[in-house]
Design a protein that fits this description.
The chain is an alpha/beta fold. It folds into 2 domains: 176 residues, 3-Layer(aba) Sandwich (Rossmann fold); 100 residues, GMP Synthetase, Chain A, domain 3 (2-Layer Sandwich). Helix content is 40%, strand content 19%. It is globular and about 70 Å long. The protein binds xanthosine-5'-monophosphate. Xanthosine-5'-monophosphate (XMP) binds next to loops.
Length: 315
């Protein structure tokens, strides 16, 4: 039986004796990286810098929430607003895989810069057992390539510290609760974030639109599930389509943008069935999006495709 107290008593002195100089960790606000940051912070205090990179493509309110949480947990942290850089790098990039590559590379650049400025000698990562078991090392085949394993270039001269390496998700959750970290049971969210929910080139304006639409979808589906109108889907969000259509604004014909709603049931994301969201809930979402975003969006559609043949995300 995993005992978080015992684990901390064993690991904290161990981390303290391993990390001689300064260390840095990238924290997304997810449970693994937050637990790793809090643990190492308890061991070495302000010799750890926790960096949260705001790419401009985060969910609504996310940056503030993470900032507050890290402050409350007394973790020495820095919120880096790198949105300008990310939007610049993504200018004109349309291909989904290129978007992922550009975002990954840019993230490493920003993080490396912070590591240098802080004179970090160690890199802390919240890698947990399934990450490296599935990603494989020299002797294993790669099943899936995970972003946080081998995500940094070989020439980064930082020594790797992975305090959660032997833990499984339920153990990390136990540890999180023990450390006073709110464990959210939030739906999965892709690393490239809202960039892959904007079909076509990414702009700050479109990121704002899809961020707002995603927030409305989340709010309304969570409310409907709480009220017992439906089961909360496994994943649910909005996508901004590169399609404009005719609408009416007062007496005028206008061209507006189109939002697609995606909600699916799934076990592990490998296959998925579209959620049978009640029409009254879909209508609420549609009315809210077209009212609150009437300057930009005048049409909302619902994606009724399973995976396969579609994927969950549109890119
Ligand atoms: P798809 O769209 O392939 O998604 O059916 C399956 C699950 O993976 C998430 N996803 C990603 N997660 N980086 C991530 O960290 C990515 O590039 C990425 N692409 C898709 C998706 O949100 C879903 O939960």
């Amino acid at each position: 039986m995993f005992d978080p107290q015992e684990f901390m008593e064993e690991m904290v002195p161990d981390i303290r004796s391993t990390i001689k100089g300064k260390a840095i960790i990238a924290c997304s606000g997810g449970v693994d990286s937050t637990v790793a940051a809090v643990m190492v912070s308890q061991a070495i205090g302000d010799r750890l810098l926790t960096v949260y990179v705001d790419t401009g493509m985060m969910r609504k309110g996310e940056t503030k929430t993470v900032d507050k949480m890290l402050s409350r947990l007394k973790v020495n942290h820095k919120i880096v607003d790198a949105s300008e850089e990310f939007f610049d790098a993504l200018k004109g990039v349309v291909d989904p895989e290129s978007k992922r590559k550009v975002i990954g590379e840019r993230f490493i650049r920003v993080f490396e810069r912070e590591a240098k400025q802080f004179h970090a000698d160690y890199l802390v990562q919240g890698t947990i057992a399934p990450d490296w078991i599935e990603s494989g090392d020299d002797t294993r085949d790669t099943i899936k390539s995970h972003h946080n394993v081998g995500g940094l270039p070989k020439d980064v001269q930082l020594r790797l510290v992975e305090p959660l390496r032997d833990l499984y998700k339920d153990e990390v959750r136990k540890l999180a609760r023990h450390l006073g970290i709110e464990v959210s049971e939030r739906q999965p969210f892709p690393g490239p974030a809202l960039a892959i929910r904007i079909m076509g080139p990414v702009t700050r304006e479109d990121a704002e639109i899809v961020r707002e639409a995603c927030a409305i979808v989340e709010e309304e589906l969570e409310r409907a599930a709480e009220q017992g109108k439906m089961v909360l889907p496994w994943q649910y969000f909005a996508i901004l389509l590169p399609v404009q259509s005719v609408g009416v604004h007062g007496d005028n014909r206008v061209y507006g943008k189109t939002i697609a709603i995606r909600a699916v049931q799934s076990i592990d994301g490998m296959s998925a069935a579209y959620s049978k969201v009640p029409h009254e809930v879909l209508e609420l979402i549609s009315v809210r999006i077209t009212n609150e975003m009437k300057r930009n969006v005048n049409r909302v559609v619902y994606d009724i495709t399973n995976k396969p043949p579609a994927t969950i995300e549109w890119e």
